[in-house]
Design a protein that fits this description.
Length: 342
């Protein structure tokens, strides 16, 4: 089989033997795999989570055909499936309470386990969802850009809103899209960097351009917010976000960052207004199943963010271009060369 292997500063396409399936696992022929910011961070040499080591075989946004299964599953061979990003123990308190994103034994596809930038991938059958006849390019965006957005929206629970999304990229724009379906009454506002992004969101949300000073702008445009969700990756987002909230409001932080959390607000500001500040990490199988059925029903279109389709051989150059900041914006999706597939 062919796969992409990444060490800090080095990415290459390699060949190796097909791994044996363990009990409970399935083999998936990869039809599409998203290339996301995390993959670029891996190439740049980010600090890996516990129990992971370089080199890694990236690719955690995978859609493909289930071609072999060892163990029982309700999914028929030949079905299009997407893979949940986490493999989990299924027996700790977090797993048993359907909060498996908090499982301490979790393994991440494309970091701990060989990922989907390959012609095939093996993964627990219990962490796959069949998705009918969705376009595989769109399906590949469901496990991360959509399921994570659903998790964040569930935590934000904005009711009638207003809901503010800071950073309307892959995940953030899906928070807005899902909100129009699940919270149709909620007034939406998004903080974006560039006027082009504001234009792209024209039919979805009101927009404010530029993060600095955005809390004041948001209050002018929609009033105080019931919830704010941040996927901007900016250290300033928490300080602006917390100032947008009404009493009892929730700030959901979804960007992974090494920066200190600095809300630049006296403790009394949080206490007297009973503000709720919480983290949002990945998603659960429930989140993935929900976005899959919304996509299958046609009410949720995740595919509009795909900007380019590349083959496996191009991945090293594309990673390098992203790391150097010379890549085009939007989301690249990898379609492995089917001739070399299993
Ligand atoms: Zn991703
Ligand atoms: Zn667990």
């Amino acid at each position: 089989m062919k796969f992409v292997e990444v060490s800090p500063g080095v990415a290459q396409v390699r060949s190796g033997p097909l791994p044996e399936l363990r009990e409970g696992e399935g083999r998936v022929r990869v039809l599409a795999c998203g290339l996301c910011g995390t993959d670029v961070h891996l190439f740049k040499g980010m600090q890996l989570p516990p129990n992971a080591t370089y080199p890694v075989r990236p690719g955690h946004e995978v859609a493909g055909i289930l071609i072999e299964a060892r163990g029982t599953t309700s999914i028929e061979l030949g079905s299009l499936v997407v893979l949940h990003i986490f493999e989990v123990c299924q027996e700790c308190d977090a797993c048993l309470s359907s909060n498996e994103q908090r499982c301490e034994s979790q393994r991440i596809l494309g970091i701990h386990a060989p990922g989907g930038m390959a012609d095939s991938v093996t993964w627990p059958l219990s962490r796959m969802v069949a998705v009918g006849d969705i376009d595989p390019l769109s399906a590949a965006l469901l496990p991360d850009a959509a399921a994570t957005a659903h998790h964040a929206l569930r935590l934000a629970d904005p009711g009638d809103g207003p809901l503010c999304v800071i950073g309307a990229g892959g995940v953030g724009s899906n928070v807005l899209r899902l909100s129009t379906i699940l919270y149709p009454e909620a007034v939406l506002v998004a903080i974006v960097r560039r006027p082009e992004s504001a234009l792209a969101l024209e039919n979805l949300a009101k927009t404010v351009i530029g993060l600095e000073g955005s809390a004041k702008q948001v209050k002018k445009v929609v009033g105080e917010c019931a919830a704010v969700v941040d996927f901007s990756g900016s250290a300033l987002a928490a300080a602006e976000g917390v100032r947008m909230l009404k009493r009892g409001g929730r700030l959901i932080l979804g960007s992974v960052s090494e920066e200190p959390l600095d809300i630049r607000m006296p403790v009394v500001g949080v206490v007297s207004r009973e503000l709720d500040i919480m983290g949002c990490y990945g998603s659960t199988m429930k989140d993935l199943r929900t976005v899959c059925s919304l996509a299958e029903s046609g009410s949720f279109d995740v595919g509009s963010s795909v900007s380019s389709v590349i083959d496996l051989a191009s991945v090293p150059n594309v990673l390098r271009a992203h790391a150097e900041g010379s890549a085009a914006g939007g989301r690249a999706v990898i379609v492995p060369d089917q001739v070399s597939s299993v």
